[in-house]
User: Which sequence fits this backbone?
């Protein structure tokens, strides 16, 4: 499905790798080719998307970039962006292929389902490879700069400007030519996660291994599953691995960070939900993924009346797990202290169904690539509170970036 979808200028491939977590919607889907599409930068992007949805009441796939915050919260951004994804882009696909454990469903606007299925089972990856040398991965922050920045943020917390802030750093490679699909496959093999995605928007690519859901609507119910709290896996040592999991589960610091974000999400959802209906269904549960243990909570509520997609985004975006609290103030500090724009990182990718139901991930553990500029980027971050140890926060960033660095080091063929 992925090889077939990659033939098109625009495609979106979403795979939950058979995790079967609560509220799982689709096992695996690829949307390819654009019958209609809408892209815009912050300003009137959400109003444009609302009009686009009114004109095309169909399946819609696409993304929200982090800097859509500038429209929602009347902020601004002037940092460097080496990738260039638009702040918002959605498309009505020409083809949708859905896979579950017993069948594959082919959706097409033309009467060509059988020929598509034949093409699908015979699809090969496009290859045109040449050997190159090692990948030179650079960082915008030195260790000292990152640690100094954490100390600045702790002083902001002490003054009462905020009480939690997510600080991210960019790792990047210049003048690089890669096969994005090959990189995605390597990442997927090394770190299969329930909100993984391969996304292609002309010359812009996303290879995403996200374990986190941002927002899902199911009829009159809406839910968010913020993730905050990480510890390493030791799959070759079950005893050490269980010790790491229990340390996370019992960490006062990690639980405090998670609960802060849960409170923020509860506040966001209360803007669009029936009064008194917002509940914490699961608090600080620890889930194990291939490379890390993660602390996840689930917050849900009953929608108040006919709340559409755009209204839900205005109330909740960007997600609290990637910002902090209070949200607007920490976004101002993020712009001040981070050295590059986040772009699609810590934004969201997903789909809207004709019914109005939708499912969106959080774009983390991801590689962004601009093939025209030959620029590759990935970010890693951690939540800063007054009790944070700057050295340990830096190490957490490196832990989150490790799987991507390994995959890039092993991707020795380029086209």
Assistant:
């Amino acid at each position: 499905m992925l090889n077939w979808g990659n033939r098109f200028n625009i495609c979106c491939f979403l795979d939950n790798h058979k995790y079967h977590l609560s509220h799982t919607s689709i096992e695996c889907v690829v949307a390819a080719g654009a019958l209609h599409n809408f892209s815009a930068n912050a300003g009137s992007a959400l109003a444009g998307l609302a009009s686009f949805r009114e004109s095309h009441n169909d399946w819609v796939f696409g993304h929200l970039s982090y800097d859509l915050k500038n429209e929602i919260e009347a902020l601004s951004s002037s940092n460097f962006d080496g990738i260039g994804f638009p702040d918002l882009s959605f498309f009505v696909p020409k083809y949708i292929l859905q896979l579950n454990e017993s069948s594959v469903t082919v959706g097409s606007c033309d009467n060509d389902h059988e020929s598509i299925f034949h093409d699908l089972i015979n699809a090969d990856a496009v290859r045109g490879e040449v050997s190159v040398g090692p990948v030179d991965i650079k960082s915008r922050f030195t260790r000292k700069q990152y640690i100094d920045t954490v100390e600045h943020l702790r002083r902001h917390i002490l003054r009462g400007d905020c009480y939690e802030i997510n600080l991210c750093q960019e790792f990047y490679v210049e003048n690089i030519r890669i096969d994005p699909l090959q990189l995605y496959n390597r990442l997927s093999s090394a770190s299969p996660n329930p909100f993984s995605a391969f996304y292609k928007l002309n010359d812009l690519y996303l290879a995403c291994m996200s374990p986190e859901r941002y927002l899902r609507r199911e009829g009159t119910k809406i839910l968010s599953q913020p993730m905050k709290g990480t510890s390493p896996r030791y799959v070759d040592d079950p005893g050490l691995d269980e010790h790491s999991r229990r340390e996370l589960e019992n960490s006062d610091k990690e639980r405090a960070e998670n609960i802060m974000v849960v409170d923020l999400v509860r506040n966001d959802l209360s803007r669009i939900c029936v009064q008194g209906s917002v509940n914490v269904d699961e608090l600080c549960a620890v889930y194990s993924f291939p490379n890390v243990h993660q602390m996840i909570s689930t917050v849900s509520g009953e929608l108040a009346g006919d709340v559409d997609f755009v209204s839900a985004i205005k109330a909740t975006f960007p997600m609290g797990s990637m910002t902090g609290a209070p949200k607007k103030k920490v976004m101002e500090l993020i712009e001040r202290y981070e050295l590059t724009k986040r772009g699609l990182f810590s934004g969201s990718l997903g789909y809207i169904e004709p019914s109005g139901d939708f499912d969106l991930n959080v774009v983390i553990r991801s590689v962004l690539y601009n093939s025209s500029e030959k620029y590759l980027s990935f970010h890693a971050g951690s939540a800063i509170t007054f009790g944070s140890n700057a050295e340990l926060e830096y190490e957490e960033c490196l832990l989150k970036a490790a799987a991507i660095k390994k995959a890039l080091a092993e991707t020795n063929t380029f086209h």
